[in-house]
Amino acid sequence: MKISEKVMALYDRMESAPLNPVWISLVSRARALARAHEVETNAHMPLVGMTFAVKDNIDVSGMPTTAGCPAYAYTPASSATVVRRLEDAGAILIGKTNMDQFATGLVGTRSPFGACSSVFDERYISGGSSSGSAVAVAKRLVTFSLGTDTAGSGRVPAAFNNLIGLKPTRGLLSSAGVVPACRTLDCVSILASTCDVAHMIWRAAKGFDSGDPFSLTPRPGEDAAPWLNAPFRFGVSPPEQLEFFGDEEARTLYEKAVCNVKNLGGEKIEIDFSIFRAAADLLYEGPWVAERLAAIQSFIRGHSDEMNPVVRGIISGGKRYTAVDVYEAEYRLMDLRRAAAKQWARMDVLVLPTTGTIYTHDQVASDPVKMNTNLGYYTNFVNLMDLAAVAAPAGFRSNGLPFGISFIGPAFSDEALLALAHRYLGAKTPLLDKAPGCVELAVVGAHLTGQPLNSQLTQRGARLKKSCRTASGYRLYALAGSKPPKPGLARDDQFQGAGIEVEVWTIPEDQFGSFVAEIPEPLGVSNVTLDSGELVKCFICQPYALASATEITRFGGWRNYLTSSNL
User: Fold this and answer.
1) The whole model's pTM is what?
2) 131 is catalytic
3) How far apart are CA 525 and CA 523, in angstroms?
4) Which is catalytic among the residues 153, 189, 237, 413?
């Protein structure tokens, strides 16, 4: 079926259902079809033919932006940077979705355009604030959608609709053209049905934007995840710090998810989650609420009676904070970040429930602030701590409602977290060929595990990926007079041997240069082919040193030679 035919069928389907509560406004059928015909002739574009929706706090040229509040509406002349980038990559915009007003809520009910429900049971909330964006993907109305995520607004609705919810590192996706909630914390988030689709969207949307003062790009090595294809350590909360708000099935599903992560090669590490919880409490019990007020201060002065009363109460509460409160809270947050760094030294990724439970519409209506607060138990700290996160499906309760977990990592770990979630969900093909921000290095002698120079790798954060052999066509020599004793690997295309034993290590890019600087003559680093056909960096011996060396190829590797020689 042609792209234009798929778009036509989608509009036929949507005409049979009401606009609200999923949508706030739609791209016209004619405009969407014109766009479909345009991309049909550009099949090389990475997102060609993918349909998408954007939360209605993200600008689209010529379409009203309401932020879930009709009185606030304006019509921008240009689209948000992320929208332009996705359209440039071939994606087709379908419409703008419902949301908790001014992105203030995790419930999806605080909107004059109606309350969204989980696609699995209309009695239960969809989660928010990116409610319509999640439901549009879950109902297969679009391939993917954009939301925003300051306190969990992308991850919570992902969990309640069995989706992937990527909350990128702050600043990695431009926020230019996005109505702020807390501008220093806001992120554009991605909702998709699979990790590979989310990854494609992330790659197309990210990048530095000079029009966004908060835009960032990682320095070399900042995105390094040497643990990705190696045994890794994942942090969990001690049982006494977990909270499921009486939802025992959620507890059981989380325990099962933890076992499944262990089966991927993860080592479970209990960390002090109270540090992260203390940071979470700052978001709504500290002066960051005043940042929400700063975003719409002029509007709220003249239109407070046109706002959702719960949202109005929360944002107006920012008036009580002083400049002194801001500084004191910032000092407290920096103390907590320093304490959290000690926990991160023990783990590579943090694995938590995305939410402890899910609520019905009636439960939320009975106590909207408390229920919302409960839903942020595992999400509110992430942006304050400058972390990235991926929400992923993790099973179903007996009543058919989904449960989800979140993989959380340091800033710029987005791609690695997606790759880990991809593995967790049972994908047969890896999302990435190699760990982000890293160099794969084969070592053959004194840098092997247990050998005297191995610490030069481990001190730089390198991780052992695997033990294997080189392809045929390599010889091994014991170098004369080297201290400690070292071998030299040399290529011989005419030699058809069994290959030489090596270990492949993954080392962060920003550490590779200093590692190479320590390599003495006659050794250097070049490319070596492994028995799998992979090409990696490896120690290679310069030819002049072979004349005084002893060939030890017959031993198959340095360890066998040392054992046979009693060295």
Assistant:
1) 0.96
2) no
3) 7
4) 153
